[in-house]
Amino acid sequence: MSRLPEPIHINIDPSDFDSFRLYDRHNFFYDNYKEGNILDIGNIGGVFGKGKISKFHLQVKDKIESSSNLYGFDLYPPENPAEYNLQKTGNLEEGLPYEDSFFDTIYLGQVLEHLGNPNIALLEIKRVLKSDGIFIMDIPNPYSLARILKYLFKRKESLGNVTHLIFYTPASLKSLLYNAGFNLVKMNTRLSTKFKLIPFVFIKGLGPHICVTATKVNN
Known about the structure:
With 219 residues, the protein is of the alpha/beta class. It has helices at 25-32, 46-49, 55-64, 118-128, 145-154, 170-179, 200-203; strands at residues 37-41, 69-74, 87-89, 103-109, 129-140, 182-190, 209-216.
């Protein structure tokens, strides 16, 4: 049985963010995934997709099918199952139907903020990830420039759609990963193209999405 990590004080500063402009969170996946068995969790879109076609999942499949196997896992089955030959249906918070240490890459895109039990989900992801595998995740950034300005001048705040339960700051996300047994490797935020002319030093870490990679701590 894995031991819980020792409590530590988690800090975030500008050095924790990558020093390049990211304008597409999907490019972050392509830049960091490992070939082999790849799991895309929430690939149909969860309660909002309800089985509808996921363009990104199929694009990834077309791009990597010669070198990797792309698996999908979602709350709902796809409307066109022939396109999703390695698809399974279920609730991430109730467990993943895969054997231990099976995946080289696991992608969790815009899912964590919908979960009521993120620790259970992350422990399951850790279980099925290989010891040298890579975990890629992106979530909304509560410290995005647009959200900060909206609250600063209008005192308005929104979690977005009604199924968003928790927004994670960079530090709370790093802490959550650490306590689930992951090492944070890379962090960036997807920037809006509206801010291309603003010097990067002023908007670093202020994009609308936080994108991270992590590796599992092998006890």
